[in-house]
Structure formats: C-alpha cells, structure tokens
Amino acid sequence: MAEIKNAKVEQRQTKIRNVPVAVTPEGFWCCPSPVAFQKTLKSHNSLTKHKQSSPPLQPPKPEKKPSSTTIRSVIASDETQQNLGSFDTVHSIAVPATVQERPQRQKVETLPRKVAIEFGEPGSSDAKVILVGKQGFCVKLSVHKKVLVDHSCFFAKKLAEKDSVFACLEIESCEDAELYVETIGLMYCKDMKQRLMKQNVSRVLRVLKVAELLGFSSCIQSCLDYLEAVPWVGEEEEEKVISSILRLKTEGVGVTPVLKRVASNAVDPPKETLSRIIELVLRSKEEKSRREMKSIVLKLLREQNGANVADNFNDTIYSSCQTCLDSVLSLFKQASEGEKPETDTKQIAVEADNLTWLLDVLAERQAAEEFSVTWANQKELALLHEKLPLMSRYHISRVTSRLFIGIGRGELLPSKDTRLLLLTTWLQPLFNDYNWLQHGCRSFDGKLVEEGIGRTILTLPLEDQQSILLSWLGSFLNGGDGCPNLQRAFEVWWRRSFIRPYSDRQANGSCQTDSTSKEE
C-alpha cells in the first residue's frame, strides 16, 4: 500500500488539519489531546448536514450485535488459534475496526477523504497508520516500525508481510478512532501508568479494548493495574469493569487481582463470618449505629433472597435468639427482685429489639416457625412479666406483636396448637402493655398489629375464637383505646356463629338433597 501524499489528497479537496504534536522528553511522539477529535468531528458533522440535498440520504442500517453464543465461539476460536500460533484471521464480529489489505483495490490516495487529521512527524517516520471512520473521516498517523513491532503483535504480524521500506496500514470502519490514536500514542510513553491516571474508568476500558485488538500486552497490563487500584463508582460502573475483564481473551495477563475485588475462592460466605456479623450487631453499645446496621443487614439478606447464604445460617440465628432469651429471662428475674431497675430497663429494651430483629431475619428466610414455638412456651417469662412495672416490661410485647403480624401475613405458619398456646400465653400481656406500646415505641404500628391479632384468632376453631374474643371484649370495654381494636375479627366471628352458621347450612344442604332424591 503506497504512502498517502498530501498533494494528491488536496486535489481531492480534502481538508487536512495539522494538530500540534505532544513530544516526550525522550523525543518520542505521544498521544494528543482528545479535544482535537471532538472539535473536528463536530465541524465535520455540521458540514455533512449542511451539504445534504433532497431527498435525504437513508441512514445506514445498524449492525446487529453478536449474541453471547457467537462471542463465545469467537473467543474459543481465537484462543485455539493463539495456542497454535496462528494470526491469519481477524474477526470483524469482535472488533469495531478491521485491518484489511486489498492489493487489487483502488489506491488509498485516490479515495475521497472529506476530513483528515494528521498526527506525528512525517519527516522522521517510516510507516503510516490510516484510520478510516464513518462517512470518509480519516486520521493519519506518522509512526515508526520499530515502535509498532516492539509493542504490538498485531502490527508486527502485518508489517512482517510487507517488503517495502515505507509501510502503510489502513484500519477501516473505525468507530473509535480517537482511542486508536491514544492507544498507539501510548506505545511512545515511557510511563503509561502516569498517563492513565489522568483518565476515568470508562475511558480506560475503551483503551483496554483497543489494546487487546492490537495485541498491546504492556498497555493491557497497565489498564488492569489501573482498574485494580482505582475505586469503581456505582454498581453500573462495576458491572462494566467486570464484564470487560471477563471478555478479555489475551493470554499472559493477570486479571485475577481485579476480579478478587468482587469474588473469592469460597463459593458461599462462611458461617463463621455471618455469625461474627450477627454477634457484632447484637452486642453494639451505640443505639444509632446498631439500628442502622440492623436495617442494612436485613436489606442485604432480603436482596439475596437465600442465595449464597450458608444452609446452616438459620442455626446461627436460633443460637443468637436463645442467647437473647436467656438474657431477657435473667434481666426479668433481676428486675422483679428490685436490682438495678434503670439498668435492667435499658438492657431489656435492647434485648427485645434484638429479638424482634432476629425474628425479622427468620421471617425473611421463611424459617420463623420454630421461634413461634419457643416464644409460645415462655411461660416463666410471661409470669414474671406481670410482676414488673410497665415501663420495664412493655418492650417485650413487641416480640409478640411481630409474631402476630407474621402469622397474619402468612410469613410463618405455626401449627394450630402453637397458635392457640401463643394467644393463651401472650395475648393478655400484650393487652396490658398496648397503651405504652402506642405512645412509647416509635416503630409500633397499631393497625398492623390489630390486623395480625385478628387474623391469628380467626385461624382457630370457632370455640377458641369465641373464648378469646369474649375475653378481649371485656378488656376493650374497660380499656378503650388502651386495648387493641379487634372489631373486624369480632364481626367475622359473629357472622360465623349467629348468621346462618355452617352447621345450619350443612343441615339445609342435606335436607335439600333428601327432598331432591324423593322427587326423583
């Protein structure tokens, strides 16, 4: 391919823009500022729009993106060829630009070039690289064979095929000419790391892509070192980095340090780590930090939805629950004996909040039935509850409230005996503490609790519903707003019991069946 001469290009009315060349202290040509590309592209686009005549040109059809299966097959093919030492094929599906040689094609000098930018020093160079962009946009680089051969296996392969003293390579359909110029310019940089530090993550990923296409291994490694050290801002940027790294198919480069930021050798988070996190959160002495971390851990577990969590993690939660229950029982005993009442009240509130949070975690993991059984059987704790002042004990009723909400929502499905025992043991203590819960607990949702209690009662046999709701009626008539409002559950029970009971409907159904058979 012959050298492109400025004189012949001018005859074609091509606008050539000479851009100042950045020179390193060693005298090498270095990659220019991207501002030159942006200004030239803008002016080129405006001229193109101005010269368009009617009817307007049809826009080019967008190229179809390769499927993941196609990409994988190309990667496998490329890896096989690399292992065999073959460089005969350049896949246009995986690269935005392809380098092609057409011996019988019209010479480059005679091709129409609308806009051209030239970088480098033609007087001292012995090779040219021509980047042909869309709509005839052309960039010419005056470069040196030795630099290209030393840094790029791709250029080394292409230049080895040329016998002429002055070599000229053309890269057609180049969608990212700016990054090709910058990547080739990095071959002249003594310290690529210093140059990359001035760029952002998105631009370095583009450089990495071009460097891989050119076989520029030292640049690939410098980009990976940059990506390993620089912070990734946001999940979107992290996904871009990881996907770009996973698509790399160049052998001999270390991608593991970058990937270690998001993956480890362990398939699942170890049980010991999760146990340590739970323990640190539960034992925190700072209320605000403890509350925030509980919210974060619960949110993260909810997002995981059971994925990548150790199967025996529930055992860890139940072990923590038992520890909290033992602590609450001990504190109730101390408070009932009058030992350090203020300290006991604060600690009881902390342990009650811990139990409620652990119950939230178990409910998210659909594993709270065992907790309901354990709580329903805390008869000693329920008896001590009556002996403590309201201010000291009411926090513990939050655990009962959370259980009723969970049953009402269907988050846990304890057996009928467990539901009845839970109501028998803890409903009256909840009635006694309800007024304090409404006014002393900011996170308490009375409507939600009332709905949960009512739904739990209505899951029992009709006789048990009657017993519990009549007991509630006496408390409600005496306590007013200080007692949960279970009127909806009361109405449902009333209709079930007095307005055409199921036994009457069953009897009527059997009578209708008998009369029908007689008529027949």
TrEMBL record:
Residues 43-69 are annotated as: Disordered. Pathway: Protein modification; protein ubiquitination. It comes from the Eukaryota. InterPro entries: At3g05675-like (IPR038920), At3g05675-like_ankyrin (IPR058039). Signal peptide: none annotated. The keyword RNA-binding does not apply. The keyword RNA-binding does not apply. Pfam families: BTB-POZ_ANK-like. Keywords: Ubl conjugation pathway. Residues 274-500 form the At3g05675-like ankyrin-like domain. PANTHER family: OSJNBA0011J08.25 PROTEIN-RELATED, PRLI-INTERACTING FACTOR G, PUTATIVE, EXPRESSED-RELATED. May act as a substrate-specific adapter of an E3 ubiquitin-protein ligase complex (CUL3-RBX1-BTB) which mediates the ubiquitination and subsequent proteasomal degradation of target proteins. This is At3g05675-like ankyrin-like domain-containing protein. It comes from Arabidopsis thaliana x Arabidopsis arenosa.
